[in-house]
Amino acid sequence: MIRTRFAPSPTGYLHIGGVRTALYSWLYAKRHGGDFILRIEDTDLERSSVESVNAILEGMTWLGLDYNEGPFYQTKRFDRYKEVIQQLFDKGLAYYCYATPEELDEMREKQKANGEKPRYDGRYRDFSGEPPAGVDPVIRFKNPIDGDVEIEDLVKGKVVVNNRELDDLIIARSDGTPTYNLTVVVDDWDMGVTHVIRGDDHLNNTPRQINLYKALGAELPKFAHIPMVLGEDGSRLSKRHGAVSVLQYKEQGFLPEALLNYLVRLGWSHGDQEVFTIDEMVQKFDLEHVNGSPSTFDSVKLTWINEQHIKVATADHLATHLAPFMADKGCDLDQGPKLSEVADLLRERAKTLIEMADGAVYFYNDFEEFEAGAAKKHLRPAALEALQLLRTKLTALDDWTAEPIHACIQGTADELQLGMGKVGMPLRVAITGDGQSPAIDATAQLIGKERCLTRLDMAIAFVEERAKNA
């Protein structure tokens, strides 16, 4: 069975690059009927935080990237790591290194001066003398000295690294805590991970980890290193390029499936298709079509993808994600139409949920004044007769639905021999407070008869006052 994992470090928030890695791993497992595992790599005790863990879990939940197993925490597996380190000692493949930071600095400076690549020189690899006093040693792995490490990478292709390029990596710090390269190997081995899909910034760790796998007699997983995501200026995506946390995209009004759609295409393609449902991503995703080159994050493209998803999402789904934005605007959703109906009406006019919420406020909250520009243009004395006649016709309506409302507007225009715009626009400003809205008959239906008539009275009074002062 295919088993993939996402293993973030809780030293910061769940960011875009991490989400794409999680998505690719999730999709690959889903497509092949496998398992997706969440593991929190929290061995960096100084930098890890509960807040970061919670942000990761909340982000995964919002995105719908459900996991079959986990979350597992590395800090709860220290006994297992010690057991594996002892196995390496027993095989003669681990040793204590007493080199001080000063020694290591001096060693590197000499290597640089000689034009050599700075690397640990193995000075304690076969040490059998008396340990230096007052030094807390690290534990190093005896990396093979000869031969090559071959990586059959599912994205990069074949990568070959000579063992002479690799030094004896530290597998436990001087305080006894295990390091990343050891814990990731032990965890992936114990958890039966078959495919390690991760960013290509980890590619230089892979030869070292392969040697550890072999030293432990563990079966190697397949590796797929995906290129990094760049900012629009061509540098590595970072805080200065926008959102720090994936949850900021939630706050900016993006649908989770739209963000995932954008990220799946950020380095992978399926023909010319741009817009994917989650099901389509699961059905079509493969590693063969992951691009080997870095991708550039484009906020304009992300917004366009979000707009497409807003247009096709179910009304109930939109309402679920829209509701928090309405609450932020002080709207009581019990004092107005069903939010799903409002979302359905506004979907063609919004690129984000924030824009949709901005356009939905008047369905729930009454206003005390009209938008100045719209009122100046459309609530003029010339509109008074049309508004008064409309008020009369709408008051008489028993069936408050779009079609009869439209008939009232048309009837008023015909009776006064006016174009529809001369009637519809004053009505739009009267009942929405602004000059922008979807079809005015459908808008009026959702606002409701009582509220529309009250607002019409307010507009008529405004125009009468304006005429008086003209």
Poorly predicted runs = none
Q: How many strands, what sense, and barrel or not for the largest sheet?
A: 3 strands, parallel
Structural class per helix/strand content? mainly alpha
Tell me the β content: 5-15%
Summarize the helices and strands and which ones pair or pack:
Elements: E1 3-6, H1 16-31, E2 35-40, H2 50-63, E3 69-73, H3 78-90, E4 94-97, H4 101-113, E5 138-141, E6 148-153, E7 157-162, E8 170-172, H5 180-190, E9 195-199, H6 206-216, E10 222-226, E11 229-230, H7 246-251, H8 256-265, H9 278-284, E12 295-296, H10 299-312, H11 315-328, H12 339-346, H13 353-358, H14 372-378, H15 384-395, H16 402-415, H17 420-432, H18 440-447, H19 449-469
Parallel strand pairs: 1-2, 2-3, 9-10, 11-12
Antiparallel strand pairs: 4-5, 5-8, 6-7
Characterise the protein shown here.
With 470 residues, this protein is mostly helical. 46% of the residues lie in helices and 11% in strands. The protein has a three-stranded parallel sheet, covered by helices on one side. A three-stranded antiparallel sheet has the order 4-5-8. Strands 6-7 form a two-stranded antiparallel ribbon. Strand 2, helix 2 and strand 3 form a beta-alpha-beta unit. It is elongated and about 105 Å long. The termini are far apart.
Task: Quickly describe the structure.
The chain has 470 residues and is mostly helical. The chain is built from 19 helices and 12 strands.
